[in-house]
Amino acid sequence: MVFIKKYRTFRGAFNGIKSEWQLAHQLLAIPVWTPLRALSSYSINTEKIGRALHQVSDSIFVCLSPFSGQYFADDHGPFLTGVMWAVDQGAARRAIYQDVEADSGALAVVPHLFLPGGCSATFEALLNKLIMMDTAGCQVAAKFRRGDRAFINRMIDSRAGRYFFRGESGLLDVPYAAIRNLTA
């Protein structure tokens, strides 16, 4: 059985009522290495999922690092490094923490805000677009869990962001999660 997620206006995780896409747009304008605690000045609250991930709304998350662009931990951290869209919290946990069992397998349409240059949301289209956009290229990898060798995901990684796919192969697979890296 496949579930298609419908989006709605999110209430509760931040002050006021905004659509998730207004919120994502606001988050993407924040510079990389901004301390997480600075989100309160934007009237944005988060819920901690883990050390590297906080949930902002139903399908918008912020990715964090304990480092501020340095090679040592900073007392002012954690720091924002990216904004993630995921079908739901379980999908985000699968992408970041390899928690396959938390993922419901639900599908949703990837918001255009998370796609490079108006690209369609398939593995093949994303890979071709990212190769054309980034002179340094991009990397395609598959992750398997160490202990039981369970397949975690297939991923396209570039300077612009990362795209996570549930299928081990397939050019028409669509992402279940996407991260846009923040810039300075």
What does this protein structure show overall?
It contains 3 helices and 8 strands; from the N terminus they run αββββααββββ. It has helices at 20-28, 89-97, 123-133, and strands spanning 47-50, 53-55, 60-65, 79-86, 139-144, 151-157, 161-165, 177-181. The protein has an 8-stranded antiparallel beta sheet, with helices on both faces. A hairpin with a 2-residue loop joins β1 (47-50) and β2 (53-55). It starts with 19 loop residues before the first helix and ends with a strand. Mean pLDDT is 86; it is low at 1-15.
In brief:
By secondary structure, the chain is α+β, with helices and mostly antiparallel strands. The chain has helices at residues 20-28, 89-97, 123-133; strands spanning 47-50, 53-55, 60-65, 79-86, 139-144, 151-157, 161-165, 177-181.
Helix content: 10-25%
The best one-word shape is globular
Number of strands: 8
Strand content bin: 15-25%
What is the topological layout?
Layout: H1 20-28, E1 47-50, E2 53-55, E3 60-65, E4 79-86, H2 89-97, H3 123-133, E5 139-144, E6 151-157, E7 161-165, E8 177-181
Antiparallel strand pairs: 1-2, 2-3, 3-4, 4-8, 5-6, 6-7, 7-8
